[in-house]
Amino acid sequence: MALDRGRAARDEAAPAPRLTPDWPGWVACATAAVGFFACLVGWLAGGDGFSVPWAPSLDLHLSFRLDGLGAIYGLLATGIGALVFAYGTRYMTLHLEHERRGAVERWRFWPWMLLFAMAMVGLATAQDLVLVFVFFDLTAVCSYYLIGFDRSDSKARTSAVMALLVTVVSAVAMLIGAVLLYAAYGTFAIPELIERVGPSETTTVAAALIAVAALAKSAQVPLHFWLPRAMAAPTPVSAYLHSAAMVAAGVLVIGRVHRLLERSELVMTGLLVIGALSIVVGGVLALRRDRLKQVLAYSTISQYGYMVLLYGMGSSTSNGAAAFYVMAHAVAKSALFMTAGAVTMATGEDRLSKLGGLGRRMPVLAVASAVAAASLAALPLTIGFFKDELFFAAAWEEGSVTTVLAVVAAALTLAYIGRFWVTLFLGAEKGQVTERSVVMVAPVAFLAAVTVVGGLVTEPFARLAASAGEVTAGRPVEVDPGYHLELSPENLMAIAAWTLGGLLLAAPRLTTVLSRTLARAGDLFGPRRGYEAMLHGLDRASAGVHGLEVRDLRSSIAAVLVPAGLLVGLAFAATPTDGAFALGHVSGADWVILPLLGLITVVTLVIARSRSRLAIALALSVVGFALAAVYALIGAPDVALVAVMVETMLALVFVAALARLPQEEPDEDRGSVVRKKRRRRDVVAGSIAGLAAFVTVWGFLSKPAAESVSDDHIRLAPEAHGGDVVTAIVADFRGLDTLVEITVLLVAVIGVATLMRRGKTW
Amino acid sequence: MVRRSGRGAAPDSVVRVVARMLPAPSVMVAAALIVKGYAEVGDGFAAGVIVALAVSLTYVAVGADGAEAVLPVLRHAPKIAVTGLLLALASGFFPLVYGEEPVSHQPAPGEPLTKFGKLELFTQLLMDIGVFLLVVGVLVMLLHQFGRLRGEEKS
User: What gap in Å lies between CA A661 and CA A668, rounded to an integer?
Assistant: First the structure.
C-alpha cells in the first residue's frame, strides 16, 4: 500500500511524457491540402459532376457536382481543414501530454477529423436529398466522437450527446421532408425537384422540415444551445467544426435547396425571423461571456444568423452576399478559435478575466488575431468589410426593419469581438506564458494574411460567391464588393454600426446588465430547459415501461402477448371482414386431423391447469408434435419435418432449463392477495392473446385476401429446380432474407457467449 | 447436461449406448437430406438440427465434459459456424461479381442442370451446405455454453 502511494507520488512529480511527432495529424493535414487543390482545380476547370445509380427503383442516385456552392464549402472544409489540422498536430500533442494520455489516443481523433472533412466535401457537392441527409448525419456522428474526445470528462460526454441528439433528431425532419417531396413529385434529386415543385401545402411542410434540420445544424435560435456546450471539445475541433464546417453545413443546405424554400412565403419569413433572433440573442450573450471559446460560440450563433437572414431575404443580392459571408466569416472565426486555443495552451487559462496584456508577449498572435477580429467586425482593409457591405446593401434593399437590424447586428459584433481582443491583448499583464509554439501561431497568421489579401483583392472571392449565389438563386447574381468613398447607404450604415459598437464597447456596465439579464432569462425559460425536461421525461417513461415489462416473468410474457393481441384486434376492427370469415367443410383427411386437434385442445388445458413443470414442458411438446402431424396430413411434409426438428430441440431445451430452476416456488407469495391478482391478470392477458391468435388463423384459413404470394411461390418452385417449396423459398425466392437471418443467428450466439462467458466462444 | 443432484446422477446405460452410436448415422441422415433436398423434403436447416440433436443427446447422456471428450471434433464448432456463414454469404453475393443481383443462382431458372443421382448440382446447394454448417456450429456452441454452466459455477 505504502509502496503504491510512493509510486503514485513519483508519477505525479515526473514531467508529463513527451510524445512523438503527430504524424497521423500531418497525414490528415496533407490529405486535406490535396483535397483543397483538387477542389480548386476542379472548380476552375468548370466544376463537373457525376451520377451513379444507387437504388434506381427509388430514383436514388449518388450524384455529386462541384458547382459554385459546392466549391465554396468544399474549399472551406479542405482549406481551413488543412490549417486547423496542422495547428492540431501541436495542440493535440500538448493536450495529450497535459492529460497524460498516450500517443495512441491520436487514433481516436484524426480519423474522425478526416472523415468529417470528407463528409463535408460530400455534403457540399451532393445533389440528392437522401445523400444530403446521409452526409448530414455522418458529420453529426463524427462531431459526437470529436466533441466527446475527452471521454473521462462527463461534461464533454453530455455535450457530445446533446450535439448529436439536437442535430440528428432534427436531421430526421429533413428526411421526412425529403420523403414528402418524393411522394408528391417522385424524385429525390434536388435539381429536378426545383423544377417540378410548385407552391402547395406539401411544399410548405416539407420546406419547413428541411429548414428545421438546417437551422438546428447552424445552431440557430431556439436550437442553438448545443453549440456553446460543444465548446467542451478540444480547440481544433471547435476551430474547424464550429466555425467553418459543421455549423456551415446547415447554411449550405439552405443555400442548396433555397429555391424549394422560396416556394413557401411562410418558410422564408421564418428564416428572416429566426435569423434576426439568432443575431440578437447570440450577439447580446456574446457580449459578456468570460470563457474565450464561449464568446466565440455565441458569436458563431449570431454570425450564422446573418446568413440565415440573408437567405430569408431571398433576393439575388442577398443570396450572393450569404455565400460571400460564409467565406469571410469562416476564415475569421477559425483564426479566432485557434487564437483562443493558442492562448489557453500558452497560459493554462481560458477566462478573459484571468488574462490580459498578452500583446507584448505574443506579438505575432496579437496582430494576426487583430486582423481576424477586425474582419469579423467588418473594419476596412479586411475581407470582412465587404461581407458587411454586401449585407448592408441587401438589408437596405429589403426595407427599414432589416436596415435597423443590420446596423444593430454589426454594432453588437464590433462590441463583443472588440472586448474579446482588447481584454486579451491590451491592458495590464495577467497570466503566465509558458508554452510557445510556431505551429500554433502560423495558421492564424496565414488566415490573417488571407483576410488582408481578401480585403485588397476581392475579385476571386467575389467570383466564387457569385457562382455560388447563382446556384442558390437559379439566375446570374452580381457580387461586386469594392471601396466606394461616397455617402452610399452601405457606408452610412457601416459608420453608424461602428459608432454604436464603439459606444457599447465603452459602456461595459450597460452591456453587462443586458447580457446577464438575457442569459438569466435563457437559463430560466430557454430551450435548453425544454431539451433537458424532454430527455428526463423520455428517460422516466422508458424506465417506467421497462419496469412494467421486466417486473417478473409473467409481465415479460404479457408485454409481448397483450400488445400483439391488441394490435391484431385493431387490425381486425379496421379491416372490412364482412363475409370473409367462413366455416369450411369437413371431408377426407380432415377426419384424421380433427382428433389430433382435439388432443391439442386437451393438452392445452392440461398445460393451463398443471402445477408440475416437467408435465407442462412435456405437454407443450405433445402440442408441437401433434401440430407437426397436422402439417404432414394437410400436405406440407417439409413444414412438418422442420416442426419435428424444432419441437425436439425445444423439448430438450425446456428440460435442460427446468433442471436449473429451483425446485420450489418462493414461499412468500404463495396464496397471497398479490398472487391471486396476478392469476386474474394472467387469465386476461392469455385470453386477449388467444383470441387474437384464433382470429388471425381463422382469417388466414378463410383467405380473405384473394391473391397471395404463396401461390406464386408454389407455381415457380419447379422452374427454380425445386421440388420442395420451402427449400426453394429459403434458398432462392427469399434468399436475401435467409442470408440476413443466418448472420443474425451467428451474431446472437456471439451475444450468448459474451453474456455467459465473456466472449469465449469455446 | 441434465443431472439432478438428488436421485440417479447418470442416465441409464441404454441412453448412453444410443448416444454413443447416434452421431455417425445422424450425419448420414443429414447428408441425405441435403442431397435430395431440392427434389424432395428437407434442407440444410433440418439437416443441421438433426446432427445437433444427436450431439445434444450425447451431452445429455455423458455430460458436457464427457461429450466433448468423446467427440473432440466439437471444439471446432465456432470455426464450422463461421465457415458456414461465409460460404452461404459468398454463394449469395457472388453474382454481384458478374453484375447480377444477389442470390441469383446458377444455372438460372428453367435452364438444364447436371444431376448426380438425386443430387442436383447448382449454387443453391452451396448455400444449403453453408446453412447446414452454420446451424450445426451455432447449436453446438449453444450446447457448450449452457451445458458447461453448472460445472463452471462449481469451480
Answer: 17
Q: DSSP labels for A593-648?
A: HHHHHHHHHHHHHHHHH---HHHHHHHHHHHHHHHHHHHHHTT-HHHHHHHHHHHH
Query: What is the rounded distance in angstroms from the CA atom of residue A153 to the CA atom of residue B8?
Result: 58
User: Can you give the pLDDT at residue A276?
Assistant: 93
Does the beta-carbon distance from A727 to B43 stay under 8 Å? yes
Is B123 within 8 Å of chain A by CB? no
Q: Which of A649, A660, A756 sits opposite B53 (nearest CB)?
A: A649
Least confident residue range of A302-311, A659-668, A681-690, B117-126: A659-668
pLDDT in tens, A594-642: 888 899 899 988 888 887 888 888 888 899 999 899 888 877 787 888 8
* B49 in reach of chain A (CB within 8 A): yes
Stretch (H or E) spanning A53: strand A49-55
- Which residues of chain A neighbour B142 with C-beta distances below 8 Å? 749, 752
Q: Cell triple for residue A751?
A: 451475444
Q: How confident is the model at residue A581 (pLDDT cuts 50, 70, 90)?
A: confident
Residue B49: list chain A partners with CB under 8 A: 645-646, 648-649
Phi then psi for A354, rounded to 5 degrees?
Answer: -100, 0
Q: Global pTM?
A: 0.74
Given this model, what pLDDT does residue A666 score? 59
Is pLDDT larger for residue A306 or for residue A666? A306
Find the CB nearest B53 among A648, A722, A762.
A648
pLDDT above 90 covers a percentage of chain A that reads: 38
Alpha-carbon distance values, B76 to A745, B35, B68, B147 (Å): 17, 24, 11, 17
CA distance A150 to A99: 9
| Separation in Å, CA of A183 to nearest CA in chain B | 27
Report phi then psi at A262, rounded to 5.
Answer: -60, -25
| AA identity, residue A385 | F
Which of A275, A274, A23, A63 shows the shortest CA–CA distance to A189? Answer: A63
What are the pLDDT digits (tens) for A161-209? 999 999 999 999 999 999 999 999 888 999 889 888 888 888 999 999 9
Q: What are phi and psi of A53, to 5 degrees?
A: -60, 140
Q: Residue A618 CB: number of other CB atoms within 10 A? A: 17
Question: Which member of A660, A723, A726 has the closest CB to residue B39?
Answer: A723
Residue A622 near residue A599 (C-beta atoms within 8 A):
yes
Determine the distance in angstroms separating the CA of B28 from the nearest CA of chain A, rounded to an integer.
Answer: 16
For residues A561-577, average pLDDT: 86
- Find out whether the peptide bond into A222 is cis, omega within 30 degrees of 0: yes
Q: Which residues of A touch B51 (CB under 8 A)?
A: none
**B45 contacts on A by Cβ (under 8 Å):** 642, 645, 730
Q: Per the structure block, which three cell numbers stand in for A445? A: 497568421
The string of pLDDT tens digits covering residues A607-618 is: 888 878 888 888
Tell me: the pLDDT tens digits for A1-56?
A: 344 444 444 444 455 567 788 888 999 999 999 999 999 999 888 878 888 887 77
Q: How far is B98 from chain A (nearest CA, A)?
A: 17
Q: Which residues pair with A356 in a beta bridge?
A: A430
Task: With beta carbons under 8 A apart, name residues in chain B contacting A648.
Answer: 49, 53
- Measure in Å the smallest separation between the Cα of B17 and chain A Cα atoms: 18
What distance in Å separates the CA atoms of residue A87 and residue A731, rounded to the nearest whole number? 56
Domain boundaries, chain B: 13-154
